[in-house]
Fold:
Amino acid sequence: MKLAFITFSEEGVRVGALLGERMPEMDCFVHEGAGTTPFTHQSFASVRELAGRLFREYEGLIFCGPTGIAVRAVAALLEHKSRDPAVVVVDVCGRYAVSLLGGH
Structure:
């Protein structure tokens, strides 16, 4: 499964590094100024622009940060449950995950 990990903070970078060790095929996208991981694929300035690019390229998007940011980033991109990628939000401590899309 082609996965994109998206984070906005240094704490999220640490979670991305842990997940990247277990899923080396995952691409990690880090907001400018939040740091990098050995798995960082690209930095970004606008999460809305990034989500627009990634939504059709990846089978799953993992956001590490506030759920509201993830919801606003993907809301306008939704088409149909059979075509949209899975979207999961993970907290910055890496303890909790919430499926927003693809959980059916």
User: Anything to note?
Assistant: The two ends are 17 Å apart (CA to CA). The first strand starts at residue 3 and ends at 7. The chain has a mean pLDDT of 92.
